[in-house]
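Q: Given only this backbone (155 positions), what sequence would you predict?
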């Protein structure tokens, strides 16, 4: 297939999917707010607008997961060394996340002064994710700073 034709098809698909998503979002936004009566809210939750938005969201998430898995398999076939290194990086990030999740946090609803209390598991998970992201940023900055120096040292 011609690359220009493929670009046109992919752009059309992209704009079509975004258009459907915007319409589904508008259907949800146009629904009742938290101030409405409980029966109205329940009718909306069981109605077609919410079902369409939720179904479309699930479809997009599943399509993204399939695309990522396809990408990894395709990259594993074409450039196995780089792909294995990428997968290893994801596994290391998962290990960091699980480590931070297991050690937990001393934060509670009271220490965070949350208006609406949440489960302690939610606080642990969010804290672990933040710590993992922080470690990733620090590693990225160190690589950015030290890679030119390492290149000069090798010469």
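A: Predicted residues:
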């Amino acid at each position: 297939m011609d690359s220009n034709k493929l670009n046109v098809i992919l752009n059309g698909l992209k704009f079509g999917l975004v258009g459907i998503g915007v319409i589904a979002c508008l259907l949800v936004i146009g629904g009742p707010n938290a101030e409405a009566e409980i029966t109205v809210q329940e009718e909306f939750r069981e109605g077609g607008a919410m079902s369409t938005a939720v179904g479309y969201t699930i479809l997009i998430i599943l399509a993204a997961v399939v695309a990522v898995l396809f990408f990894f398999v395709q990259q594993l076939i074409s450039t196995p060394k780089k792909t294995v290194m990428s997968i290893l990086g994801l596994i290391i990030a998962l290990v960091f996340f699980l480590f931070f999740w297991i050690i937990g946090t001393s934060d509670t609803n009271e220490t965070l002064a949350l208006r609406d209390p949440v489960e302690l598991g939610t606080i642990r998970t969010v804290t672990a994710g933040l710590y993992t992201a922080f470690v990733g940023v620090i590693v990225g900055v160190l690589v950015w700073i030290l890679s030119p120096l390492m290149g000069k040292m090798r010469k």
